[in-house]
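step 3/5: co-fold with flavin-adenine dinucleotide
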Amino acid sequence: MTHQVHIVGGGLAGSEAAWQLAEAGLNVRLSEMRGAGETTPAHQTDGLAELVCSNSFRSDDAVSNAVGLLHAEMRALGSLIMAAADAHKVPAGSALAVDRDSFSAAVTARLAAHPRVEIVRERIDALPASGLTIVATGPLTAARLAGAIGAATGADSLAFFDAIAPIVHRDSIDMDICWMASRWDKGDTKDYINCPMTKEQYLAFHQGLLDGEKGEFRDWEKDTPYFEGCMPIEVMAERGVDTLRFGPMKPVGLDDPRTGRWPWAVVQLRQDNALGTLWNMVGFQTKLKHAEQVRLFRTIPGLEKAEFARLGGLHRNTFINSPQLLDGTLRLRKAPHIRFAGQITGCEGYVESAAIGLLAGRFAAAESEGNVLLPPPPTTALGALLGHITGGADAASYQPMNVNFGLFPPLHAGRTKKADRKKLYTDRARLDLEAWLA
Ligand SMILES: Cc1cc2nc3c(=O)[nH]c(=O)nc-3n(C[C@H](O)[C@H](O)[C@H](O)COP(=O)(O)OP(=O)(O)OC[C@H]3O[C@@H](n4cnc5c(N)ncnc54)[C@H](O)[C@@H]3O)c2cc1C
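step 4/5: write tokens
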């Protein structure tokens, strides 16, 4: 099959871009190196759109949460990633979480079955000299291609760390100590396993984090800043004795049924697969050595006999200086036949990566047919995120960014309550997206 657009990378962004292009009637070559004897430090399968860490797409609340709004906008644009997520979700309160294996299998199967998509298992080492191309190789782009991108852009790629939280086998958790609940009893179901800690237990755990043996950083990982949203627990612990208690270990809204009170601190676990056999430790990304993780995490009440399906870790994240390098439709200014999509553009997160893939696919489809697709309005979640990446952010201090209402143009609504303001943002976004689609 001769292709009209070449997509490099079959992750969240590349898969979504391929789907959008194919549905628009274009032939796509989707090159993915996994399955050709290659992998990244974080992927574990050959499946497309593999989730490398958490199984959560975060809040699904489209009225008062920016990522929930992004979900809704992507659904309105026929997103494959959202359709697969909706079809393979697992209970997670007001969040959208998925069974990672069946989710990835569904994305792979739908693309493989599409007559306009050719999935080729190959590693690409150079940027194509011509032909519409979308580079969606993610934060762990293979080294040679990363070198080629650096050479083509003339700008230094930045690096920082993302982090993996441990996963625990459900049947090794002591439910005589832990209990099921969602914070403030939100939603109809009790979706989290909660491990309660007394003040003494928390202080001992905090000290254990400070004292615990950490993994060495490799040379190329040294002196790079952490992304605040993915900070290792031991780094949080170093910031102060109560930092964790106001972060991932916060106990507010969680009544321990044995005492009727909030514990001093809580470790939460969230379901990680449809069977409910695996649970991840929420917010517990760490650079502690594996043996140290096992020893320390087994001091958490209820996890004394925990068996770990996966331990925590930290990884490099490569991204380009998009505000400087890309135009408003994600094209490399110096070589406009090439677009970038996904986390490599400096957006952060599964949903954001897929959203930027969706837009790159639609822009390329329009361009291939001699049309110009205007970017979505900046008042929408898609437009706000795109606008930030392609110029809204300060190039000099550019760092990865999740979608949030701070990226949206202000409302000029005078003094309004926070909840009302969020609703005004999302109401405006809905109307403006409808107008853009019309
Ligand atoms: C360790 C880690 C943990 C993360 N945890 C989370 C999390 O919990 N929640 C969250 O929302 N986000 C997380 N992220 C951030 C981000 O959302 C994910 O990395 C997401 O998968 C990015 O989507 P993507 O499509 O841009 O890249 P990816 O999903 O990584 O897809 C890129 C694809 O390109 C392929 N590839 C790379 N180089 C080549 C090449 N030269 N030729 C051919 N193929 C190539 C790779 O094999 C991969 O399949 C994490 C990132 C990392 C690195």
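step 5/5: annotate
Residues 157 and 320 are 5 Å apart (CA to CA).
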